[in-house]
């Protein structure tokens, strides 16, 4: 049976960095599930049809990391049929040997509730906004606004809202250097293996 690491948390909490590091450390496959929602939103048209017809090329669009693509993603992500259309791809990805790391909002709660390790990565709003603004070269106050609006939508929606699984290990990266956050995550996985 493949080993599954589920990582959830709000935008720019550090979950993507931790997910990539764990995948490389343990030799596992990695899927940034936010990309599926970003690509669906960016494709335009009927979001349910776009999610069903998503192709690998759609995941390569150059504009998917922008704040606008994040907002579009969070709007289509509230539609249950969109989530259902993207579910199967995620399940297939998670079944790969020797293991997989998936990061998103509902991996530990909905997509892979039986994952061997569940992490919930958080950081203060200010730190998350500063990190993402530096990454995208944008204004910190605008970014804070954008992240808070998106987190609110993601946590308050009826379909698979953002929340920690009851058995998730919480990692707060507010005051952690990247290396410390990664070391904490590796230790959590090692103790579950
Ligand atoms: O993680 P990222 O910021 O790329 O995600 C973009 C948006 O996609 C999120 O704000 C959220 O609305 C949605 N998403 C989701 N479930 C996931 C991953 C992302 O609803 N598993």
From TrEMBL:
Residues that, per the record, bind ATP: 9-17
Any one Pfam family match given in the protein's UniProt record, by short name: Cytidylate_kin
Organism: Paracoccus maritimus
Domain of life: Bacteria
Record domain Cytidylate kinase: where: 5-40, 63-190
Any GO molecular function: kinase activity
CDD domains xref list: CMPK (cd02020)
Reaction catalysed by this enzyme: dCMP + ATP = dCDP + ADP; CMP + ATP = CDP + ADP
Family: Belongs to the cytidylate kinase family. Type 1 subfamily.
Annotated EC: 2.7.4.25
Protein name, UniProt field: Cytidylate kinase
